[in-house]
Specification:
Length: 422
């Protein structure tokens, strides 16, 4: 079996690697994509239900903000630690645990009687998502190689990320027929399917290491990321003592995390590997791409409902243009990577994202045609599909198999931090 090396040389060697796939490769990939769908739908499905939740739970605007961000805060805070846990103790075990825990925590979310209970349940669901989402990409990178890996990551990116667009659409449909809690039950049968299929199909071992796990670094990563994301969530309310305190915590714990990782014999997050341009350029590109995705869905929902007067379901149907473009462009990205390379494919995707936002800025006005709404969404979806695939591929393929959890967790952070910042 061909071993991957780290750094820029690894990124150049991946296309030439032997084409390797696991038994029942198509079913394995479908299972892992379904796991990504479960995690991604949960990031956005509650947004469309916020007015109903606010009325039912007598929640203020600030409380609603915590409800909608609780899942994302939890998953962003834990992915680095949990990605390393999967690398050490077993990726299949972590995938199964995440899928299993999504079910009871989603049910608890649907039954919450107060905003505090809903926030707690959504944060618990986010921790389960932190086990599930990065592990799906880790397994793809560990089980596939060569062009098979590139195609698998392309489909994982396009379909998995497209699911975050389908979240509001599904939620809008449910709210027209059921109570607000029904939106949190959407992923329960999907998570059950992931558990059963993964138990049957996913190989028990996928190149995990047997070294020590950096628990102090893991705890510091949770504190640093969580305090930073909560600070960003609270920042629109102004420079308050809470924002300043969270900033101090984020800076101090972030500095301690870097100090720890530079000295740990087996660091949770290898800063030497992360310093390679292949890695950090891909991280920055992913931050822009997935931040654009989440930001565009948020802006689009506000514009189509508050300015154009669409109901939640009709507003959500507009995002189908983004989902279709994302799913269609991801396989194109795989072919472009083979022909043009990662950098040019990534640049094409970022250019399409920029063009999409220019279209939105120039055409989204009161009374604007639905056509322009669809065009703006489609351009952004095409850009995310083109840029997201090489970004996720570079973050994982530039690392040795035993450390792909670091790359997959970083790919997840691009989505979570991008959504929080943008």
């Amino acid at each position: 079996m061909t071993q991957r090396t780290s750094g820029p040389a690894a990124a150049r060697s991946v296309p030439a690697a032997a084409d390797r796939r696991p038994p029942r490769a198509g079913l394995v990939l479908a299972t892992l994509i379904l796991g990504a769908i479960v995690a991604n739908i949960n990031t956005s499905i509650s947004n469309v239900a916020l007015p109903d939740i606010g009325q039912a739970l007598s929640a203020s605007n600030q409380q609603l903000t915590f409800i909608t961000d609780a899942y994302q805060i939890a998953i962003a805070s834990t992915v680095l630690y949990l990605g390393a846990v999967g690398d050490r103790y077993g990726r299949k075990k972590l995938l199964l645990l995440g899928a299993a825990l999504c079910i009871p925590f989603s049910i608890l979310s649907s039954m919450a009687h107060g905003w505090q209970g809903l926030v707690t349940a959504q944060m618990a669901t986010g921790v389960a998502g932190g086990m599930l989402y990065p592990t799906t990409l880790s397994l793809i990178t560990a089980l596939y190689s060569g062009r098979s890996m590139t195609r698998a990551i392309a489909l994982w990116t396009g379909i998995g990320a497209g699911a975050s667009v389908f979240g509001p659409l599904t939620g809008g449909f449910l709210l027209e027929h059921f109570w607000w809690g029904s939106v949190f039950l959407v992923t329960t049968p999907l998570a059950a399917a992931v558990f059963g299929l993964a138990l049957w199909l996913v190989p028990r071992h996928s190149g995990e290491h047997k070294g020590r796990l950096d628990h102090p670094g893991g705890v510091l990563s949770v504190l640093a990321v969580s305090s930073f994301v909560v600070m960003v969530v609270l920042l629109p309310q102004g420079i308050t003592p809470a924002v300043i305190g969270l900033l101090v915590v984020a800076v101090v714990t972030g500095a301690l995390f870097v100090w720890r990782e530079r000295r740990a014999p087996e660091p949770l997050f290898d800063l030497t590997l992360a310093a390679a341009p292949t890695f950090w350029v891909a991280f920055a590109a992913g931050l822009v791409a997935f931040g654009a995705l989440i930001g565009a869905v948020f802006i689009g929902q506000q514009f189509t409902q508050n300015v154009l007067g669409f109901n939640p379901f009709k507003a959500a149907t507009m995002t189908l243009a983004m989902a279709v473009a994302m799913i269609a462009s991801a396989p194109v990205a795989a072919r472009l990577i083979a022909r043009l390379g990662t950098r040019l494919t990534m640049a094409a995707g970022l250019s399409a994202i920029a063009l999409g936002f220019v279209t939105i800025a120039l055409t989204w006005r009161p009374g604007t045609s639905v056509t322009w709404v669809l065009v703006g969404y489609a351009l952004l979806g095409c850009g995310v599909g083109l840029a997201g695939t090489p970004s996720s591929r570079s973050l994982t393929a530039s690392l040795p198999v035993r450390r792909v959890g670091m790359g997959s967790a970083s790919a997840d952070l691009t989505k979570d931090l991008g959504g929080a910042v943008f």
